[in-house]
Amino acid sequence: MLHHEIQSEDKILFFKKEYISEFVYGGIDGAITTFAVVAGAEGASLGITVVIILGLANLIADGFSMSVGNYFSTKASRDNFDRHKAREYWEVEHLGEAEKAEIREVYEAKGFRGELLNQVVEVITSDKDVWVDTMMKEELEMTKDGKTPIKTASVTFLSFLAVGSIPLLAYIFAGLDSGIANSELFLYSSILTGIALTIVGALKSIVTERNIMAGIAETLLLGGLAASLAYFVGDVLEQVFM
């Protein structure tokens, strides 16, 4: 039911489907890493100002690093596709008979025989663009991703910032004299992070076509493990150095 409520023909919530994976994984990484910073600072009994500074520095640095990596990964994939496609055009132009034989082999393997096979080969090889596209898909098993490097990097960075800032909200409000008791800050941060991971975990399940409850549980478990480890390390370091 939830799947049908938040998924439409072209969008999931207000995101285009083709970019939802970038939002999901950027958001998960942002929430978990920032909450780990908060947990580590809490374990080391650091002040509110330090938590905010460390958290924001982590958001900007890690978010930018992740988006840059996403940019170069997407760009490399597109460049690799374009390079192979250019080579296929050259082979069609200069090695036409051999390439036509390959088309015939591909469709023979699919069960085409006799005159029907001849017609299929003739139709495909009569259009150079169709011919090359067929070779890319059938021989090289390559299709071009419609996502651009700039957009994937931007979505990753923005989702990292948006979702990753949630664990810091309680501390930021406390720093603005909201009246929240310092002893309750980590509890509020944990609750807010849990809500954020629940939503993003549900979206992740839609992207991966898995059971939504299993996806939420997995995301919450990973976030909890990361935070627990960071809290433990912070507590140990505080005892050793302070």
TrEMBL record:
Transmembrane segments: 20-40, 46-68, 152-173, 185-203, 215-234
Main location as per UniProt: membrane
Gene Ontology MF annotations: manganese ion transmembrane transporter activity
InterPro entries named among the record's database cross-references: Ccc1_fam
Compartments, record wording: Endomembrane system
Presence of the UniProt keyword Magnesium in the record: no
Pfam families: VIT1
UniProt GO cellular component terms: endomembrane system
Cell membrane among keywords: no
GO BP field: intracellular manganese ion homeostasis
Coiled coil residues, start to end: none
Record key words, sorted: Membrane, Transmembrane, Transmembrane helix
Membrane topology type: Multi-pass membrane protein
Protein name: VIT1/CCC1 family predicted Fe2+/Mn2+ transporter
Lineage: Bacteria, Pseudomonadati, Bacteroidota, Cytophagia, Cytophagales
